[in-house]
Structures are given as C-alpha cells and as structure tokens.
Specification:
Layout lengths: L1 E2 L4 E8 L2 E8 H5 L3 H11 L15 E6 L4 E4 L9 E4 L3 H13 L4 E6 L4 H10 L3 E6 H4 L8 H7 L1
Parallel strand pairs: 4-7, 7-8
Antiparallel strand pairs: 1-2, 2-3, 4-5, 5-6
Helix pairs in contact: 3-4
C-alpha cells in the first residue's frame, strides 16, 4: 500500500487474475455522504490475496516506542512469541538488541511520538542494524484500528 502526503490512498493487490487498484482522494472522500463513505471503507478492506504479498524486508522488525514500554515485533516463526514488551531502561534496550539479533533481524522500523526513540536508535545503530524512524502521524492515516501491539506488527 502506498500513501502519499496529499492524502491519496492507493491499494494495489496482484492476484493470478490481474491487478486490483483502488485510488481514493481524501478531498473526494470528505464530500461524500455517510453511505458512500461506508462503501469506500468496505472497498478499502484488504482481501485474501493480500496474504500472498511478499515482504520487501523479510528480516525486519517493528518497534513502538513509549515512555515506559517498548513493544517489539519480529516476523512470525522467528521466536515463540513474535511480539514482546520491553522496559525503557538501558539494560532493557540491550535486551531488545540481543533478542533482535537472536531472531535474525537486520532492519528495524521504529514509531515514536516523543524523544524516547533516541537511546534505542543509537544502540541499534552501533550494533549494526539498519534503523528507520517512522512518523507516527503518517501511520495514523492508514485505515483500520491501531493499538500499540498492532502498530508494531504492521510495520
């Protein structure tokens, strides 16, 4: 799924029968009636073909940074629990990097709304991870309900 800064959503799903693309402009959506909006929201739900999409970064993990806890998600099959909660103290941050190393993670996407990402970012970079900082305000515009646990697993 691609999301431009202008608010246009484009969904592209490739199946054996062709490619399905749905483009929605946020300005057009604001002028729709409630019934039209609910129909567009139904179209936005991702069909079963989405499970056939190949990941771009198969060795990537997602981290939702908080002031008291960090939620970390690795690809399924890498650990008995693919989502774990860690504290925010230095020892906890080193536990995060050790766990990510054990799980074979090479790339990390972090979502943070404050400055709490800085220590973990520095530790991950010094350990050789490719770290990406994701703007939480851009992630909020994605369809679907978001929780901290879901946020880590979608990145």
């Amino acid at each position: 799924m691609l999301l431009s800064r202008l608010g246009d959503c484009i969904y592209s799903i490739n199946s054996g029968q062709g490619t399905l693309q749905i483009a929605i402009n946020s300005r057009q959506k604001s002028r729709m009636s409630k019934k039209q909006k609910s129909q567009v929201n139904l179209k936005q739900s991702i069909p079963d073909e989405a499970s056939q999409l190949r990941p771009i970064h198969p060795n990537a993990a997602g981290i939702d940074i908080g002031s008291q806890n960090h939620w970390v998600c690795v690809p399924s099959g890498r650990a008995p629990e693919c989502v774990r909660r860690f504290g925010c103290y230095t020892a906890d941050l080193y536990q995060v990097t050790d766990w990510l190393t054990e799980c074979g993670v090479e790339t990390v996407a972090m979502e943070s709304t404050g400055v709490y990402w800085i220590p973990l970012f520095q530790i991950l970079e010094t350990r050789g991870f490719e770290v990406k900082l994701v703007n939480a305000h851009h992630v909020k515009t994605l369809p679907g309900r978001k929780t901290d646990v879901l946020g880590t697993s979608k990145e």
